[in-house]
Design a protein that fits this description.
The protein is mainly α. It folds into 2 domains: about 110 residues, no CATH class; about 140 residues, no CATH class. Helices cover about 80% and strands about 5% of the residues. Helix 3 runs antiparallel to helix 4 and helix 9 packs across helix 10. It starts with a helix and ends with a helix.
Amino acid sequence: MAAAKSGGSRRSELTLRLLSALILIPFGLYVVWSGGLALAIGCGLFAAIMAYEWVRMSASPAMKSMVTLSVLPIIAVHFIGLAAGGVALAVCTVLAALSHPLASERRMSGFGLLYTSGMALALYVLREGGDWSGQSAALITMGIVWGSDSAAYFSGKGFGGPPLTPESPSKTWSGALGAVIFSALCGALAARIMQGDITVWILTGIIISIFAQMGDLMESILKRRFGVKDSSGLVPGHGGVLDRVDGLGIVCGVMVFGFVGLPTLVEKLGFAG
């Protein structure tokens, strides 16, 4: 009976995850495909929700200021430009830290703003902010991250094995390896689609998976530091928005820094504008 109940619970969890994905994925694809104001509104919305979830996790009393400040860098980058977005993020990080009444928590409050708003800003910049084909870069990056997440989930459930860290027992080495292998295959497919260098694309797929899993693991460690299971209950089957996009946000930042720091990477991946 216990085993049947456990199996039914797993099926129920998977159903909720799929239903949530059917809502979130089309919305994410729409705003990234559209770009411009639609993307700014979508990124601003996600930044505000993630800031709310951060406040909820950390039990901070600075709800209004954190949510408001999280949106300002997105507004700045859309209406003024990339440099303005970066300056706004830095200023808002400092203001978020100062808004916390406890001096001992100000550093963590500032990190929370940088973390939540910075991930949304990274997605916007990947799509809109560079001399590369932003639409293709953002959509393919999202696809590989989602594929990595799914492969990690199903590989981990199917093969089990030891956890990656004691702090996150649900994340296993088998899941991590399955995610990396699947992402490498996604990279090979992307190379064919974009007519890029297949070796570079396979390595990029692997790197995307590793950083996506690092982002997910970091958020798990943060939740355990705050003593919560999920960032919120806004996304059935997943927890909160922050639980769902933590890996994607980190990967978008890595991709932006890679494109800026290694301009030849853009050409090798087939994203040259």
